[in-house]
Write a structure and sequence with these properties.
Blueprint: H1 15-30, E1 31-34, E2 40-43, H2 46-62, E3 67-73, E4 76-82, H3 88-104
Antiparallel strand pairs: 1-2, 2-4, 3-4
Helix pairs in contact: 1-2, 1-3
């Protein structure tokens, strides 16, 4: 990852709530678990994959300092978010947004 990429989200104040809602909705609908390393595991169905691929593409544009890896592992979709030094809290915020509603259920 290049050190020249600024650690900043480019979403506007109007776009941010919608994006957070998308993350939370996918978490509520399909999140299975989060492992100790922060890897999110989701149901491995086509709808969930499409939703996660759209989120990864969108987040990669607005938070280009983060890296997203979506793969299928052991019958689940595994999403790994990697942050450069100093941006770990932002990656954790994304993880927590996926998890938020599932914890409250």
């Amino acid at each position: 990852m290049s050190k020249d990429i600024p650690i900043a989200c480019s979403l506007s104040a109007d776009e941010l709530p919608r994006r957070l809602g998308e993350l939370s909705a996918v978490g509520t609908d399909a999140l299975l678990s989060v492992d100790a390393g922060g890897v999110l595991r989701f149901r491995a169905d086509e709808r969930t994959r499409a939703r996660l691929e759209a989120i990864v593409a969108a987040e990669s544009r607005c938070c280009s300092f983060l890296s997203f890896d979506l793969s299928e592992q052991a019958g689940a979709l595994a999403l790994t978010i990697t942050a450069p030094e100093g941006a770990e809290p932002l990656a954790l915020d994304i993880v927590n947004t996926f998890v938020a509603k599932t914890d409250a259920s």
